Amino acid sequence: MADRYGALKHIQTLDPEKDAHQIVAVSSAFDFAQDMEISLGLAFFRTFAVPSIARILDETKQFENFGQKRYDDTALLLAEFLENGLDSDRGREAIRRMNQIHARYDIANDDFIYTLTTFIFEPIRWIDRYGWRPLVEKEKLAAFYMWRRVGQMMGIRELPETYEAMEKFNIEYERKTFRYTPESERVSRATLKVLVGFLPPLPFLGELACQGVYALLDEPLRRAVGFPAAHPMVQAAVDAAFRARALALRYWGPVTTEPQYVTKRRFATYPNGYKIAELGPQLRDSKRAPIAG
Question: Does residue 140 belong to any structural domain of this protein?
Answer without folding.
Answer: yes
